[in-house]
Amino acid sequence: MINAMNTVNNEPNPPPVGGVLWSLVGDIRMLLTLPAALTMQVAHPSVGAGVDDHSVFRTDPWGRGERSLTSLQLWVYGGEGAAAEGRRLRRLHKAIQGTDAHGHRYHALTPSSYAWVHATGYPVFRHAQQYLGRPFTQAQERQLYAEWLQVGRVLGIHDRDMPQTIEEFWPYYRKVVENDLEVTVVVEELIAPDQPIPAPDRGPRWLRLLLRPLWPSLCPCFTRFRRFLTIGLMPPDARSALGLEWTDAQERRLRRFGRVVRAVVPVLPERLRFMPIARRARRAARG
């Protein structure tokens, strides 16, 4: 059972230590799932317009990714700082507004849009786990959804704006997928096989220096691999709604890739398997 509120300061707690998200979000395999979730988010016209108009994902993709990943880690492993991170994000999004490609006004904190951005995590986690880890049991799926709802509360999403059970979630999800999602400008860029990306400017200095001269040759391979993972780890119904082709040969290739990931990652030492914020939280939880 998740203790939803901190009884001392009446703020939402992060998901529980030792829960499904505790092992899932800090694992390096999480990095492979983020492009699919992001693409589903920006396929919503108002979300895509907000990112197109206000995000620095084109000019600073590595920094933007690092900041997003840090924020995600804090929602789960941040302890008392999780709620503070949620408040920071809401303040950040207050100024994000404009007009989408259909001439409709949007605001990043409109409940339906803000909730959709969060909601995409659950179906992507569930689908990707079939390839990258052990498929969830029904009990784990329910626990995962309950914990993801709790993360939503950390982010300031009201219970009335998110389905409160799995049985309520899937009709909501299918309605958005079938009626709202489209190939926005940002979706086109994220799945383009030849979209130029600046050389990495994050990480160890030695690695950045090594990659800089090689990046013109590596970038095309990276973008094609990103497209492959984006489409492959996206739930099939969302993929179909966006008209993204996925062949049997690609499916077999993704399954082979998944078998390698499942064999290698679990035997890595914790310092290589889990990201820094997760490692520190797991170490602190063990005392």
UniProtKB/TrEMBL annotation:
Superkingdom of the source species: Bacteria
ER-bound oxygenase mpaB/mpaB'/Rubber oxygenase catalytic domain segment(s): 22-263
Any one GO MF annotation of this record: oxidoreductase activity
InterPro entries: MPAB/Lcp_cat_dom
One Pfam family in the UniProt entry: MPAB_Lcp_cat
Annotated PANTHER family: BLR2777 PROTEIN, ER-BOUND OXYGENASE MPAB_MPAB'_RUBBER OXYGENASE CATALYTIC DOMAIN-CONTAINING PROTEIN
Protein name from the UniProt record: DUF2236 domain-containing protein
